[in-house]
Amino acid sequence: MKAATKSYLDKAVLLSVEEQERLLSRMTGKLPKRLQKDKLSREEALAIQLELEDEQLQEWRATMAALKAKTAKTQEKASKKVAKAKVATDKASKPKASNAKTKSAATAKKPTTPSAKPKSTSTRRTAVTAKKVANVSQSPESK
Q1: What pTM was computed for the model?
Q2: Cβ–Cβ contacts within 10 Å for residue 50, how many?
Q3: Phi-psi bin for 91: left (phi > 0), alpha (psi -120 to 50), beta?
Q4: In 3-state terms, what secondary structure has residue 46?
Q5: Exposed / middle / buried, residue 23 (Cβ in 10 Å: 0-12, 13-18, 19+)
Q6: CA nearest neighbour of 5 among 35, 65, 46
Q7: Which terminus of the chain has a lower count of CB atoms within 10 Å, N or C?
Q8: Quick one: angle between helices 42-93 and 17-25, nearest 10?
Q9: 18-45, pLDDT tens digit by residue?
């Protein structure tokens, strides 16, 4: 267990009764037991508790600073990724002059073919029936 330092002893003496009670209520571990057994004076226990809480506060601040830095870094990466995706979509949506010439030349060279529309069912039936008729007329019996 730590010994109380002079600066924290001075701070403990300056605390109001209510602040002292609040500080005593937050004591954990061996410190309240040592206070009960009269191994420590009330001021020494308060000074040690103040020092422990200051150390915990410094650790918490360091942890929060690290978390903020990490969050800022991930947000920066995300914003760069969004900006990069936006640039890529902008480039894709704008036709380049060289690509436009190539595309128009390619479409001019293509032969025109009738569109491949599916035949209606009635047309298909007549085509199948015509094939059957042709096959029947070519059968060996008719020769």
Answers
A1: 0.52
A2: 19
A3: alpha
A4: helix
A5: middle
A6: 46
A7: C
A8: 70
A9: 999 999 999 988 999 988 888 989 999 9
